[in-house]
Amino acid sequence: MNQLLAMRVFARVVQAQSFTKAADSLNLPKTSVSKLVAELEEHLGVRLLQRTTRRLTVTADGMAYYERALQLMVELDDLDNSFASAQGHPRGRVSVDVGGSVASMLIIPALADFYARYPDIQIDLGVSDRSVDLIKENVDCVVRGGPLTELSLAARPLGLSSWTTCATPDYLARFGQPNDPRDLEKHHRMVSYHSAHTGRVMPARFERNGEKIELGGRGIMSVNESNAHLAAGLAGVGVIHTFTYTVRPYIERGELVPILQDWQPPRYPFHVLYPPNRHLSNRVRVFVDWLVELFATMR
Q1: What pLDDT sits at residue 86?
Q2: Burial of 83 from C-beta contacts in 10 A (0-12 / 13-18 / 19+)
Q3: What's the CA angle centered on 291, arms 258 and 204, to 5 degrees?
Q4: Stated pTM of the model
Q5: What pLDDT is stored for residue 197 in this prediction?
Q6: The domain 3-85 is classified under which CATH number: 3.40.190.10, 1.10.10.10, 3.60.110.10, 3.40.50.150?
Q7: Mean pLDDT of all residues in 278-294
Q8: How many other C-beta atoms lie within 10 A of the C-beta of residue 166?
Q9: Is the confidence at residue 217, as pLDDT, over 80?
Q10: What's the rounded Cα separation, in Å, for the pair 30 and 266?
């Protein structure tokens, strides 16, 4: 038995709470994962996991072993990373999850710069507007927007994005220029954005001289992915209210026209989050540092 591999596999099973999910994240057959855990239990002479057809639970011995094993693996990773850091060449794989517009408009266009600096790091980029479970899905870090609600995670601020309300020139020629946000509900077609996680519509907020207006209806259309939201606006389906960085190139080319520019809500915060009890390896650290640099260019 490869005890170190068995230890890592067991830790992943505990984190994922599933043999299948652990096997998928480790790119191993499920049978290999089960065999390694069974061999580890036989080697230790204790049962680490209780398995039924419906549930997987960690025994008291299993939790004690997991905590000690995790500490040992962190120390081993520290040892490996210390040599890589000394040579100035962090290497390995970084798993990161981001929203659609952050991926397509910010991160992916700048990745050539990252790889020029760190050619030995591989990025596993998960792109969706849903909230992933970092521990169960074995993700190193995520980029999320909005107020911090997951206080169990460590967070580093990335930046603030302003908002822009806009539509195509053809749309505005047909429906006219709104002078007040309330005109959008009365005389216009709004393309709303709803959460991929909860299904709730994200309200469009406006503010001017202390007056606040919030539009929370679904409008003529509602989508749950940020790139699709932008695509609906570009297709002339209706008015979109979204982050400025996503629409700036299209406004500069005249494909979208900003409206209600004197109604500006507070800017929207973005953070990078990671598990507080997981060692932040050198390769993840340099990626997070690079994200901070990248988001500093966001307006």
Answers
A1: 47
A2: exposed
A3: 30
A4: 0.70
A5: 76
A6: 1.10.10.10
A7: 85
A8: 23
A9: no
A10: 48
